[in-house]
Amino acid sequence: MTLKVYLSGEIHTDWRDQIIAGSKGLDVSFSGPVTDHAASDDCGVKILGAEDQKYWHDHKGAMVNAILTRKGLNDADVVVVRFGDQYKQWNAAFDAGYAAALGKSLIILHGPDHQHALKEVDAAALAVASEPSQVVDILRYVLDGTLPA
Amino acid sequence: MTLKVYLSGEIHTDWRDQIIAGSKGLDVSFSGPVTDHAASDDCGVKILGAEDQKYWHDHKGAMVNAILTRKGLNDADVVVVRFGDQYKQWNAAFDAGYAAALGKSLIILHGPDHQHALKEVDAAALAVASEPSQVVDILRYVLDGTLPA
Amino acid sequence: MTLKVYLSGEIHTDWRDQIIAGSKGLDVSFSGPVTDHAASDDCGVKILGAEDQKYWHDHKGAMVNAILTRKGLNDADVVVVRFGDQYKQWNAAFDAGYAAALGKSLIILHGPDHQHALKEVDAAALAVASEPSQVVDILRYVLDGTLPA
Amino acid sequence: MTLKVYLSGEIHTDWRDQIIAGSKGLDVSFSGPVTDHAASDDCGVKILGAEDQKYWHDHKGAMVNAILTRKGLNDADVVVVRFGDQYKQWNAAFDAGYAAALGKSLIILHGPDHQHALKEVDAAALAVASEPSQVVDILRYVLDGTLPA
Amino acid sequence: MTLKVYLSGEIHTDWRDQIIAGSKGLDVSFSGPVTDHAASDDCGVKILGAEDQKYWHDHKGAMVNAILTRKGLNDADVVVVRFGDQYKQWNAAFDAGYAAALGKSLIILHGPDHQHALKEVDAAALAVASEPSQVVDILRYVLDGTLPA
Amino acid sequence: MTLKVYLSGEIHTDWRDQIIAGSKGLDVSFSGPVTDHAASDDCGVKILGAEDQKYWHDHKGAMVNAILTRKGLNDADVVVVRFGDQYKQWNAAFDAGYAAALGKSLIILHGPDHQHALKEVDAAALAVASEPSQVVDILRYVLDGTLPA
Amino acid sequence: MTLKVYLSGEIHTDWRDQIIAGSKGLDVSFSGPVTDHAASDDCGVKILGAEDQKYWHDHKGAMVNAILTRKGLNDADVVVVRFGDQYKQWNAAFDAGYAAALGKSLIILHGPDHQHALKEVDAAALAVASEPSQVVDILRYVLDGTLPA
Amino acid sequence: MTLKVYLSGEIHTDWRDQIIAGSKGLDVSFSGPVTDHAASDDCGVKILGAEDQKYWHDHKGAMVNAILTRKGLNDADVVVVRFGDQYKQWNAAFDAGYAAALGKSLIILHGPDHQHALKEVDAAALAVASEPSQVVDILRYVLDGTLPA
Questions:
Q1: Structure ipTM
Q2: Superkingdom of this entry's organism (chains A, B, C, D, E, F, G, H) (predicted)?
Q3: Rounded-to-integer distance, Cα H130 and Cα H108, Å
Q4: Is D86 part of any domain?
C-alpha cells in the first residue's frame, strides 16, 4: 500500500524536507506545490505573457499553480496543511477546505498560537500536530503499525 | 427559479444585512453562520458540557457550527465569502475551498489590500467584488437580467 | 431552511418523542425507522410470504426495512444515532457508518458507559450527546442561533 | 485482475492470517487496521500528546486510526467484516455501513449466534460466511472460477 | 415524506393501475413510461421525421422515451420493475440495472416461472414480489408502519 | 412531475419564445441565459469595474454569466441546445458537453447545414430536432404521452 | 493506454474467445463472468452451504457472482454485452443498464432478430455490432487508429 | 507523478507533435483522438456497416470515436483544447465543456482572433495559451517547478 500525501501550506521553512527525510523507508509518495516563491508568483506572466494590472498578474499565476494543486489534492489519500507564523496563508486554509469536501484525510500542522483561529480547520482534521516529526510518526503508524518509543 | 445563497465569512460588519436588504424583491434564499460571536464560540460547551482545555472547548463549538455550515454550503447555488480587515479568517478561506471542491459558484468579497494574499481564493471564484452592493447587482443580473444604470 | 433529521437506533425508549416534542416550533422534518419491534421483525414474511429458515425470515424483513432506512439516510441533513443500554445495536452503528460515508452531519447519542466502545463512531460525529434534550438544543442553535440559558 | 480486500473487525483471533494464508497464490491485495490492541488504543496520545480526559484520549486514537481505515475502505473492491464472540464491535458494524454506502462488495463473517442481531448488516452483504475458509473459497472462485471440491 | 416510485416494465396488464389504486391515501408520487405501445414505438419518427430503416425508426423512439425513463429513474426513491409472462422485456432488466447502479431501492415483481432466469436481477432487489398488492403493502409499511392484517 | 428544461445557445432568433409558448399548459419550468447581447457582454465590467484589456472585459462577463449557466445546467432535467446559422457558437457546444458529462438528457436543435459539423454533439443527444415545434412535441409526449396528430 | 474491457452476457458460444484472440497485440485487459454454467449456478451453496429452497439456492449464487460482476463493470472502460439466440438473458440487459448508469462506453453485440426487442439497450450504446470481429475492429481502431482494409 | 494530458481539438496542424516533442523528458502521458480525418469520419460505417443516410453515417462514426474521447477525457488530469483557424470545431468546444463538468484542469490554445468568441470556454480554463510551446512551459513548470529563462 502506497500512501499518497500532499503537503500544502507554508513555503518558507523546511517542514516538507523534515517530513520527507523522516519518512525514508516508508511507502509514501509525496507531492506539493512549487515552493520557489518568486516562480510561484510569476509563473502565469512568465509563460503566458505580461499583464499591466497586478491583479491579473497574480490571477494568471494562481490559475497555473492550481493545475498542480488540484492534481495533488485530487490524487492524495492524506493532505497535510501547515500553517506557519507569518502571512495570511489563506491558500493553505483554502486547500484544507477543498480537501475536506473531497473527503480526504486531513492532518493540520501548526503551533499553539493559532489554535483558536484555526478551530474550524482543525475540526475537519483527523489529526492536529505541532511538529513535522509527529506527521512522520502518524505516517509510520498508518503504514507499519509501529509507534514512537 | 430560487437562487440559494450562502453568506460566509466576516461576522463583525453589516455586509450580510446590506446584501439581504438590497436583494429585496429578488427570488433569493439566504443562509449563513451564526453571527453572534460569543454564541458561536461557546455553543459546544454550552450544549454538550464544559471542557478544561481551551482546545477542546473550541473544538466542540467548531463541530456544532459545522452542522450549519455544511448544510448551508451543500445546499447553496452561490457562496459569497467576505474577507474583512481584521483577524485571520481561516474559516472563510476554508469555506471557499470547500465550496470550490463542490463546484459551487463562488463570489469573493474583499478590499484591495487583500488582493495578493487572496489570489488563490479569487482564482477559484466567478466574481471578485469589493462592495456588498456589487453582490446585489450580480444577483439581480442573474435573476432578472438587468444591469445597474 | 428546513432541516431534515433522521433518528436512527434504539427503539425501546421514548428518546425520539422527546426530541420531536422538544423541537416544536423549529423548522425540522423528522424521519426514522418503524419502531414497532414485532412489525419490524416480521414485515418481510408478512408481506412477501413465510420462510422456513429463521435466517431468511430475518433477511426478508431487514431488506424491506432498508427501503425506509435508505430513504431516510439519503435525504437527511443530520443523522442522530442513539445507542441504548441493551442489545447489540449493530444496525445503529451500521447506519452511522452509512451516513458518515455519505457525508451527513452525525450526532451520536449515548450514555458514558459506551464511551470507549463507541470511540470510532463518535470520531465520525460532529456532536456526541448524552441526553435527547441536548440534541434539541443543537437543532435550535442551528436553526435559530439561540443557546440554552 | 488484482482484487483489493479490506479485512475489518475482530482483532483478537487469527482469522486474518487464515484468510491470507489460504489465499496464497491468488491475485489479492489485503489491507486492514492495526491489530495491536494497545497501539490502536494509544496511538493518538502517543504521537500527538497526552490527554487528561479518557474521552479525548480515545478520540485522538480513533481519529488517527481513521486515516488507515478510510484508505483501506475507499480503495477496496471487497470488504470483509468479521464479528467475533466478544465485545460490542460497533466499529465493525460502522465499517460495514461505510463500505455499503460506497457500494463496496461486502462479505460478513460471523457465527450463528449473531444471526438475528446482524440481520441489517447481513442484508447489505453479497455473502454471509461463518468460517474464514469460506471467504478464501469466494476469493478463489471470483479470481479463478474454481469451486471447492 | 413523499416517496417517489417509478413503475418500470410490462405495459400490457393493469398492474400499475392496481398499485396506484391500492396506494390511495399514501404519500406516494408515481411515475412511469408511456404505456401506449404504438405511441412508444413510433414517437421518434412521428416527432422527428420518418426513417427508411427499421433500426433507426426504433432507435429514434427509444431515445425519445429515454428522456422520460431517465427522469423517472433518476428522481425515484423506489423503482418497481415488473416482468410479465410475454416478450423479451430487456428494457425492464436494463432499467433494473440502471436503478441498481444509482443505488435506488429496487422491488422486482414477477411470477414464479421467472425465478431462475431473474436471479441476478432479484439479487439486486430489496424485495421480490409476485403480486401488485404486495408492492402496495410494502409502500404502506414504509410510509405508515402498518402491516396487512 | 415538473420537467426542468434549460434552453441554451442562439440568442438572436425567437426560438425560446416559440418553445415556451408552444408548451403552454405543460408542467415545464424553463430557464436560460440572459439573451440581451449587450448586457451579456458587459455585465462583468458594468458591475465589477472597467478593464483596459478587451480580454479581461470579456472574461469578467463570461464569469458572471457562468453563475446563471451553471445553475441552469445543474438543475435541468433536459437541456436543449440551439445552433443558429451565424457565429461560432462555441458556448453552445460547451454547454452541450457540460450537460452531457452531467448525464442530462440533451436535445440538439439545428438546421440540416450543420449536420456534419455537429455530429459529435448530436451523438451525445437523445433527440436532434430542426424546428422548435419538435421540441414542444417531445416535451408534450414526455409529460402527457400524446403525439402530434 | 490500456483499455479495460468487460465481456458480459451469453456464456454458451465462444464469442469471448474470438474477441480475445482477435485482439492479440492490442493493449486491452479483458475480464468477464465465470462462464462455467454449473459452477456459476451453484457457487453460492457450494461455498456457503446448501439451501432447501431453489430460490435461495439461486440467490446465494447470484450474490457471489455479483462480487465479480461489479468489480468488472466498475473497473471497465468499455463494456461489451452479448445477447445470444437462446434464454431470457436478463442478466445481460441488467449489466447493460448498470454500465450505462455508470457512464461506461457500451458495445452491444447481437443478431438482427433481436433488433426491435433490444432497442432501448442499443439506444444506450456507442456501438451495436453483430459479429465479434467487429468488436475487435473497434478496439483496434480505438487503440491504434487503424481501420479494417 | 505522471501527468495525464488529453490533447483535444484541431487535427490539421502539428500542434500535438510540437507539444509531445517539447515535453520530452517530462513525466507526461499524452492521449488524443484519431487524427486521420478520413478514418475518423468513416470508422463507424467501415466497421459496423454502410448507411444510406449521411446523418447516420456520421452518427455511427461519432459514436465509435466517443469511446476513445471519453476514455481520454475521463482519465486525464489536464485537458488541452486547441481551436484552429478553420472549421466550426464544435467537437472541441464540446470536449472543453465535458472536461469542465468533470472538474479537469483545462488549458485552451487559440490565436487572438478567437478571443471574443471563446470567452465562455476560456472562462472555464486555468490557462489560455496561443502557442504550443506555452503548453509545454506549463507542463514543465507543473512537473519540475522550472520556468522558461
A1: 0.97
A2: Bacteria
A3: 8
A4: yes
